[in-house]
Amino acid sequence: MKSPTLEEIEVLENLSPEQRIVWAIKTFSKGLVLTTSFGIQSAIMLHMATQYVPGIRVIFIDTGYLLPETYRFADELTKRLKLNVKIYQPLITSARQEALYGRRWEMGSKEVEDYQFDTKIEPMERAIAELNATAWLTGRRRGQSETREKLPILFLQKGVWKVNPIVDWSAKQVYEYLMLHGLPYHPLWEKGYTTVGDWHESAPGKKRRECGIHQDYQI
Q: What angle do CA 205, 166, 161 make, to 5 degrees?
């Protein structure tokens, strides 16, 4: 596959999210996947991408620690949008993890990193490899956190291109798209959650750290 040129990357800044998705389809073809956490605003990218690639492979990392509402939300959107979801889980169950290592997310930085690797990074890397993905679409936005303020539309991470079609959207644009298409926010949005992940890192108004899957760097 030919890598995108600098000129192509610059052009993407002036395109709409839909045009960026079309560009990604033409550029990466069967190597393109979509990732989702079935988080607060996940319905946007799931809906938008499937308008152009109805059968696009959707990678969902089930850590074993997700909130009950997230599992139900995922099931609802999967049925409604007829998603082609590929579920990947850790090689070690949550029960075994805690029996052998304890609650690593409550320990030091090394234990937290090990926990993130086992439950999120390794399953994602396995998914990318097994699905022969060369690029993935995400729904991340610059306005979501300070760590994402300079997030580019397209960049290379560990040999795979990451495409962020709605990276420059505001919260208002997110709301308008969801309302226009009759799409739901995650059910915990109404209870004050601005982001959701594992149950032990999610709370109303609480910001989560980057999970490791989205540690942004180029190689």
A: 110
Strands of 154-157's sheet in order across: 84-88, 57-61, 32-36, 135-137, 160-163, 154-157
pLDDT digits (tens, 9 = 90+) for 75-116: 999 999 999 999 999 999 999 999 999 999 999 999 999 999
Condensed to tens digits (0 to 9), the pLDDT of residues 27-52 reads 999 999 999 999 999 999 999 999 99
Catalytic residue list contains 172: no
The string of DSSP codes covering the chain is: -PPPPHHHHHHHTTS-HHHHHHHHHHHHGGGEEEEE---TTTHHHHHHHHHH-TT-EEEEE--S-B-HHHHHHHHHHHHHHT-EEEEE--SS-HHHHHHHH--GGGS-HHHHHHHHIIIIIHHHHHHHHHTT-SEEE----GGG-GGGTT--SEEEETTEEEE-TTTT--HHHHHHHHHHTTPPPPGGGGGT-S---BGGG--TTPPPPP-STT-----
- Chain centroid, CA 202 distance in Å: 16
Instruction: Report the DSSP pairing between strands 154-157 and 57-61.
Output: unpaired
Catalytic residue among 124, 211, 212, 217: 211
The pair of structure tokens assigned to 134 is 């060369």
**Rg over CA atoms, the chain:** 17
